[in-house]
TrEMBL record:
This is NAD(P)H-dependent oxidoreductase. GO terms for molecular function: FMN binding; oxidoreductase activity. Pfam families: FMN_red (PF03358). Residues 6-147 form the NADPH-dependent FMN reductase-like domain. It comes from the Bacteria. Transmembrane segments: none annotated. SUPFAM superfamilies: Flavoproteins. GO terms for cellular component: cytosol.
Length: 196
């Protein structure tokens, strides 16, 4: 078994130059620096149609090619990171819609990292995403990452860059947990398949 993992990172903001996207890119860079594969699915760049529940059956048909790509990517990955801006004390509707295209068939017994961006580093979005992770039988890792505007500097091109040292240090712990949990849970998934 390989000691490397592939992680799907879903950035739940459709705003160009979003803080959430920058946070997700920082997580991806941290994973890649540790020798892991990071697959960044930005919902600004790869929007999805509104989820149609009639396609959620395991029939093999998909609502659209882009949905099939998401489902197959999620099925192949060892874990996922869900990142969202905080909207009305919760996570974004576009991230909820993306998750509605997925199910426990793709996400059960996979590590799930949670991250959000909003005022005062509040945790409402990640708290609610923890419930979503549980509903698809994913295992949310203990460390979560919450940022606010003060954690970023705006570059000359107008794109925010994560610079807060305490958050960057937290990302290292977050990514280490993602790898450790993903490897442990991969072993569990493989054992289950052998026992069936």
């Amino acid at each position: 078994m390989s000691d490397s993992v592939s992680i799907l990172l879903m950035s739940g903001s459709v705003r160009g130059g979003s803080y959430t996207r920058s946070l997700t890119q920082s997580i991806a860079a941290c994973l890649e620096d540790a020798g892991q594969m990071a697959i960044h699915w930005c919902l600004h760049d790869k929007p999805l149609p509104i989820a149609d529940p009639s396609f959620l059956k395991p029939s093999g048909s998909f609502q659209a090619d882009i949905v099939q790509e998401l489902v197959e990517t999620a099925a192949r990955c060892d874990g996922l990171v869900l990142a969202s801006p905080i909207y009305h004390n919760s996570f974004s509707g576009v991230l909820k819609n993306a998750l509605d295209h997925l199910s426990s068939r793709q996400l059960a017994f996979k590590a799930c990292g949670l991250a959000s961006h909003g005022g005062h580093r509040t945790s409402q979005a990640v708290d609610q995403l923890r419930l979503i992770a549980r509903s698809v039988q994913s295992v949310a890792i203990p460390t979560q990452v919450c940022t606010d505007r003060d954690d970023f500097e705006i570059r000359a091109d107008g794109i925010p860059a994560l610079v807060a040292q305490d958050i960057l240090q937290r990302l290292v712990r977050f990514c280490d947990e993602m790898v450790r949990f993903s490897l442990m849970l991969r072993t569990m998934r493989e054992k289950q398949v052998r026992e069936i």
